[in-house]
Specification:
Order of helices and strands: EEEEEEH
Oligomer: single chain
Shape: globular
Strand content: 35-45%
């Protein structure tokens, strides 16, 4: 029935963005009709901070920002073993669980 998440799990969220200058981590770059801007996706490396009473996930970034996300969101996935190893510097530091 989908992924089961727990506090502390490293996750990857594929965020859609739009700008005139996609960054070096941009993927799936598509120019606008007249070429002024580009639509693209960027992988964000976050950590599950908590599971909310409504079942949504509270996700935390490396800089301490938080986002609420439905665990069934197709853009969200658990980080695999190799990703956790090779991209370990991109995930937020693992801290104690706030109760």
């Amino acid at each position: 029935m989908g992924h089961r998440f727990a506090p502390g799990d490293p996750v990857i969220y594929r965020m859609s963005k739009q700008s005139e200058h996609p960054g070096r981590r941009a993927e799936n770059i598509v120019p606008a009709e007249h070429g002024e801007t580009y639509a693209y996706t960027v992988e964000k490396y976050w950590r599950v901070k908590d599971i909310l009473p409504d079942g949504n996930l509270l996700l935390e970034t490396r800089r301490g920002k938080t986002h609420v996300c439905d665990p069934a969101d197709f853009r969200l996935r658990k980080a695999g073993l190799l990703t956790r190893w090779f991209r370990r510097d991109r995930f937020p530091a693992l801290t104690g669980h706030d109760s």
